């Protein structure tokens, strides 16, 4: 994950979390961004969503929603409900909500996004990511 460390070190001084999240998401092979449902959303090969930004989505909070491994949502929400939550619309599929309007550990965010990407991306792109030394 060393390629993300450079991005994170540049972005951590910014008060707006969107640029840091954007930099992390777009560093993945064939990741793209476009607005979906009114929010910045990141896709693999412009098709499958792996992260969606949520700026004040009916709750006056800033967060993102992402794919998560089985059981991760329940574990993280139980462990720290001030930082993690079950997002609307996709929470029933195990997706994880992560608040970014609190103190953020960008290394942890990068790991969470990395897991989300690996769950959604085809094997060839995951292999390409691994070849980069991530």
Account of the 3D structure:
With 134 residues, the chain is of the alpha+beta class. It has one domain: Aspartate Aminotransferase, domain 1. 39% of the residues lie in helices and 23% in strands. It is built from five helices and six strands, in the order ααββββαββαα. It has helices at 2-11, 17-26, 72-79, 106-120, 123-131; strands at residues 31-36, 39-44, 48-55, 62-66, 84-85, 96-99. A six-stranded antiparallel β-sheet has the order 1-2-3-4-6-5. Helix 1 runs antiparallel to helix 2 (17-26) and helix 2 (17-26) packs across helix 4 (106-120). The model has no long low-confidence stretch (mean pLDDT 90).
Topology, element by element:
Blueprint: H1 2-11, H2 17-26, E1 31-36, E2 39-44, E3 48-55, E4 62-66, H3 72-79, E5 84-85, E6 96-99, H4 106-120, H5 123-131
Antiparallel strand pairs: 1-2, 2-3, 3-4, 4-6, 5-6
Listing every helix as H and every strand as E from the N terminus to the C terminus, the arrangement reads: HHEEEEHEEHH
**Count of folded domains:** 1
How many angstroms separate the termini? Answer: 4 Å
Please tell me what the overall shape is.
globular
Largest sheet: 6 strands, antiparallel
How many individual helices? 5
- What is the number of strand segments? 6
CATH 2nd-level architecture: Alpha-Beta Complex
**Beta-strand content estimate:** 15-25%
Mean pLDDT: 90
Look at the structure and give the CATH class.
Answer: Alpha Beta
Any idea what the radius of gyration is? 14 Å
Query: What structural category characterises the helix and strand content?
Result: alpha+beta
Strand order of the largest sheet: 1-2-3-4-6-5
Assign a percent range to the helix content.
25-40%
Instruction: Indicate the low-confidence ranges by residue numbers.
Output: none
The name CATH uses for the topology is Aspartate Aminotransferase, domain 1
């Amino acid at each position: 994950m060393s390629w993300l460390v450079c991005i994170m070190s540049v972005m951590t001084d910014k008060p707006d979390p969107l640029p840091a999240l954007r930099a992390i998401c777009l560093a993945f092979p064939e990741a793209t961004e476009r607005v979906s449902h009114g929010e910045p959303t990141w896709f693999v090969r412009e098709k499958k969503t792996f992260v969606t930004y949520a700026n004040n989505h009916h709750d006056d909070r800033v967060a993102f929603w992402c794919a998560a491994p089985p059981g991760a949502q329940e574990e993280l929400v139980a462990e720290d409900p001030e930082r993690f939550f079950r997002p609307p619309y996709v929470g029933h599929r195990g997706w994880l909500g992560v608040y970014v309007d609190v103190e953020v550990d960008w290394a942890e965010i990068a790991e969470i996004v990395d897991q989300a990407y690996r769950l959604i991306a085809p094997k060839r792109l995951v292999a390409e990511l691994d070849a980069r030394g991530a």
